[in-house]
Amino acid sequence: MWQSVINWYANWNDELLNVLREPESAETVTIPWRKKIAKQAANLSPIERDQLYQFCLEYQGAKLWWAIAKLTILFSALGLVLYSFKQKLHWLPAVLVMNLLGWMLVFALVGIWFNYRQISRRHFHFSVSAFLGVLFGFFGFTSLSAVIQGKDIWATIWKDGPIVLVVAGIAGALYVLMIGIVAGWRNQGYETKAAQLALDAEREKSARQESESQLRLLRAQIEPHFLFNTLGAVQQLAEQGAPKAAELTANLIVFLRASMSEMRAEQISLAEEFRLIQAYLEVMKARLGSRLNFELQLPPELASIPVPSMLLLTLAENAIKHGIEPSLRGGDIQIVAEKLGTDLLITVQDSGVGLSDKPNPGIGLRNVRDRLRLQYGTHATLSIAEAEQGGVIAEVTIPLA
Description:
By secondary structure, this protein is of the alpha+beta class. The protein is 70% helix and 11% strand. One of its GO terms (cellular component) is membrane. The chain crosses the membrane at residues 64-85, 91-114, 126-148, 163-185.
């Protein structure tokens, strides 16, 4: 029998916890009285549901039954204390009345604590309910005491009634007063917390919109920056009468047609970014010839990872402009993507002139750093260092999750 009760309680507790997590699941409850409770829980505000969920999670199973046992012992002891002061009152009614009052207070506190918004709006309704509860509880427990003792019910009510009724009346008045005080205090705390959450949400929305605006501005800066540098290379070849000027122009047109959508997107896959880089390096190789060699390494399992568009392309262009072009012999560019723990690591390495001969890095690297900061906060980094064998290593770390 006890095992059945335990299983029944565990099933109901799991059901209630599920409703508090997912309010829409209240519609799946089939037992009528449990469905009513589930709907009441689902109608609570998100803040109230979360508070009740944490309470139910804390007090369940053996911990709940032990708490009930301790409170029952406490109320019974208070009943015996009442009996010691009022010998005219039998000890059993005293114990029963104190348990009645004690558990009324417990349920009142729990009800007020997790349903304070409803109570604050319907104070009169709950006050009347409290009075009727005290009245019916008085008659019920006095009658039960008389039956247990084998006495006449009406005679017992007439004899013990005045004392019990006074105690119950005082408790009822305190109960109603407690409803008003606790519900008002809790409701004020709720309103304060709700206002703070709304303010935080508004601030987060404003910050997100500001970040998105800054990201759009940074993309708008880098697109003409990239295009002007590339078109400048075409102009230089044309002025020199180089035979490859026409080929470079054709390659550039093909590249721009393929890459315009990627330039305008906020994020693209790593595979698309690598294709964009390869197309750009093919254009630059048509101009630099044997002075430029490049290698791209992208593992297939990393191809679908999203990255900010043109971020790595900016680093590749920076390596060409500040590393390969100033070098008489040219150099190599190697771009490698790899997984490093929970991060994505992309390395852009050139064998050009190195950092010592570089002027201020300019808009490119500043743009990359700003975009990483706005997109990922402190979770993404860009580091620039001198390579041991010459040239520069740029490493971008982006969180995968």
